[in-house]
Amino acid sequence: MSTSRDRRRLLQSAAVLAAAPALPAAAPAKRDFLKELGVRPIINAAGAYTMFTATLMRPETVQAIEAMSHRFVRLDELNDAVGKRIAQMLGAPAAMVTSGAAAALLAGTAGVLTGNNPNLIKTIPDLPGPRREVLVQKSHRFPYDHLVRNTGIKLIEVETREQFLNAIGPQTAMLLYLNKADGDGQIRMEEFIQIGKQRNIPTFNDAAADVPPVENLLKPIRLGFDLTCVSGGKGIRGPQSAGILAGRPDLIAAARLNSPPNSDTIARCCKVNKEEMVGMMVALELFLKEDQTSLYREWDRRVELIRKSVSGITSVKAEPFTPKIANQTPHLRVTWDPAARKLTPPQLMQKLREGDPSIEVVPIPFPNYIEIATTMMQPGEAEIVARRLKEALS
Ligand SMILES: *Cc1c(COP(=O)(O)O)cnc(C)c1O
Q: Which of 229, 231, 276 gets mutated to test ligand 1 (max ligand atoms within 8 A of its CB)?
């Protein structure tokens, strides 16, 4: 029930409104930032590549980020709570949100080297004593092991099982595994973990680009890698600047001591705020609930649509394929004789890029083919890619 004072106030404010210049009838038109900046949007026919902004977050994730942007919290308290929820979802003993899988490699390795020793945390990468080593099978080397090397360790490459076992010594700090290279080296996941446990050396598996299918992430965690990391902004479709490090509680705690909000730390540059933490959690929830079968069916449909559009062109071959473990989603490989068609793969890629709308395919200059991924395409875009590819190759 309103009092007379309330009514008076209401009338006064109505009078003020009436006297004020007319307010815009609706919310101001949304700014078109890309137009304003002269930046062209693209059709992403490449997949989750950072250079193409990787993935689109689901609306619920963006809502979570927006909601968190209005609140202050103690960052460590939030990280504890979010880490616990993420760990439960993945069946891991503990977890934390990192700023991408790359940051997880840096903070995780740092944690292995320093434990919770404040002096070591301050000193790394110039740790006292003989230089510590991380062992990796040669076939498991990858560009992002740079983040492991940032901690000052020496990366030791080995090829055979015998070399691997012989290389382990008092200086060995960690054993590094690349999930997508499983089966490429002599030592596979199960044995790798077993060696780590027998010799009491932490094992770290990088599964950054390996979901979906989700089993590619759950398996190394279940088998018992001491640390496993994954990108938040690839298949999980979380914030592009987020990732997850999951594993042994003492190592997760040590990785966090080497990270923000702590100032004098090696991973202080890899900041994660509340928005990404909660956005990452919500994205993972949604990802785990998603109907993977129908998603794959749609991705396959797009591959088939594009395949059909170019398969009638003389000397052009279009084959569906699914990469092993990393980016394990439907792709199309389109092959032709560049000399006969007077068109090299980079020239075709340039044509697709310069046309309207601009299209990006897998950004690797293969000798006589291009590759297309259909996971990031939005409704209607597979049809556009099919038409544009046919025009470009005809
Ligand atoms: C993409 C990728 C990374 C880096 O992940 P970010 O989440 O972008 O930091 C690390 N390792 C591998 C194997 C990757 O594919």
A: 231
